[in-house]
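Long-time lurker. I teach an intro course on protein structure, and each term I like to show students one example going from raw sequence to a predicted 3D structure in token notation. This year I'd like something fresh instead of my usual example. Would anyone be willing to generate the tokens for the chain below so I can use it in lecture? Attribution to the forum is fine with me.
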Amino acid sequence: MKFRRALVGLSRDNAYLTFKYALFAAFSIFANLGVQYLTARIIEGKCQLYACLITGTLGGLVVKYALDKHFIFYYHVAHIREEGVRFFLYSLMGIVTTLIFWGTEIAFEMAFRSSYARYMGGLLGLIVGYAVKYQLDKRFVFVRPGEDSVS
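-- Reply from a regular --
Happy to contribute to a lecture. Here you go:
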């Protein structure tokens, strides 16, 4: 019921943006966890968890950046240098959210000693991380010239 009340307060545009962002976050989560799963099939041993985290994060990062830039923030770059700056800032903001994601996934792995629990922790961490990431990206990454960076 609380969720429904929260949605009623959203404008139609904000509700559509929220839906799109959630959908794209789901695509990115699928890419991240899918790459992790494939990495786990290839790498075994003590470093498997960390190899999965790194490869999954990189896979999800590329997918999420492209979707956010084009379909959430409608941000277009004029030069390749600007693309590099945007991607760098996007990745930098992602450090905060990656710590949330990795911390949750590692905590579930340590608590339950199960790959299924690890993926559930990863899913939870990614959901929370993406909610934080939207706010960071809106304020610091996809700011157009002349806009206030913290609004």
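Some talking points for your students: The helical segments are 2-8, 12-42, 48-72, 80-112, 115-141. The mean pLDDT is 88.
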